[in-house]
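We give the chain.
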Amino acid sequence: MFYGEDPERWVEWIDALVAAHKFTVFKTRKFMYGFIEGHALSWYGDEISRYGFSSWDDLKVRLLNRFSTSAKQEKEQLEQSRLLDILKEMNDAK
């Protein structure tokens, strides 16, 4: 099951099954949907209703961008940097 943690390992597992069974895009989405829950399932539902997925690779890239630890760390660093810039601007305006 994928809840949003350790996406790399989950993607590797799905990749192996897709390759072994030669799933179509539709079958891959249907299969992986049965193994995703919680926050990750909410994200998936939002993404598929807004944009859809053209392929498993498309879904995989977006999922890894959203849930990978390195992507989260980069996002947090960017947010912290923006906050520091705002605080500096506020301090300079005094």
In short: Residues 69-93 form the longest helix (25 residues).
